[in-house]
Amino acid sequence: AYDPDSEALYAAIHRNDTIYVYKHDKTSAAQPSSFNMIASLPTMEDQENGNTIVDFVFLPDAQAACLCTSGGDIALVRGEGNMNQDPLEVVGSVDSGILAVQWSPDQEVVVLVTGGRTVLEMTRDFDTITEFPIDTEEEGEGVSHSVGWGKKETQFHGSEGKAAAQRKSDVDKYTTSLDDDEQPRVSWRGDGSYFVVSSIDISKGSRVMRVYNREGVLQNTSEPVDKLEHGLSWRPSGNLIASSQRLPHRHDIVFFEKNGLRHGEFTLRESDQHKVIELLWNSDSTILAVWLQVKRVQLWTTNNYHWYLKQHLTFEEDIIGFNWDVEQPFTAHIWTGGT
């Protein structure tokens, strides 16, 4: 977590049954030893999944770092605190646990996916806006109000003709990728008007993406895609939602429109198979980072609808964190197991 005003860096580390929060000030020497432990949070171990860190982000308006754990705790860490105030305050808890968290770009709204398979939307003060089941048979307002132009059946399909457009895939056979971590993901559009949730639908046995407006009303559901994976990132400019798909003969980065329809793809360059950990757009939408297990990051750009691999970064240590800088679009922050 990074405070852009003071340029302080916060780090949260889970050891045994405690989460420790460290702070590194700009004036400190750039060495691991210069991180000072400022707070700790005891955790109750979940025998099945463990109590892990789900999200850790700095909130400038609150002047605090927000920590969310899989055990359900939501805590604020305010610097070093003082003699009369503990620097760490647990401000709420989700009984069923937390699987995914994503703040809106303006940090006025936060969306959580709970262990009870619900989507929980709250204000920045953690007041509930809405909560609803993640699994639903409904496809969204955008589908029911469509006049048909966004449907695959009405799109031009070249020489194959309309018969190809109406050919039905056996979607009942669609499954998840063996590389899927089976965890949900949330990503916001850059203007904060919509967010998308990717999760494995229990009734379908495959991963589905659902697009909601800021009020939490379902707008669209993605078309069925076999072996769609967990990686998820909505391009800040708003025109594409990126994910990945593992096929027997290749590994693709696939794109969707807001209406849930596929809109292109490109194939990763792999000397051997690698699991996609995360996908991350930079702030000006010009670079898509593909974080691959466990020591590699590929940086892709596009021009005239063609995708180009600009850089392939390989590290000696395992990558444990990757984030683009919010203010400098061509700067990335990468943490490895050796730092």
UniProtKB/TrEMBL annotation:
Residues 155-185 are annotated as: Disordered. It comes from the Eukaryota. GO terms for biological process: tRNA wobble base 5-methoxycarbonylmethyl-2-thiouridinylation. It holds the Pfam family Beta-prop_ELP1_1st. Residues 4-326 form the ELP1 first N-terminal beta-propeller domain. SUPFAM superfamilies: Tricorn protease domain 2. GO terms for molecular function: tRNA binding. InterPro entries: Beta-prop_ELP1_1st, Elp1, WD40/YVTN_repeat-like_dom_sf. One of its GO terms (cellular component) is cytosol. Signal peptide: none annotated. This is Elongator complex protein 1. It comes from Mortierella isabellina (Filamentous fungus).
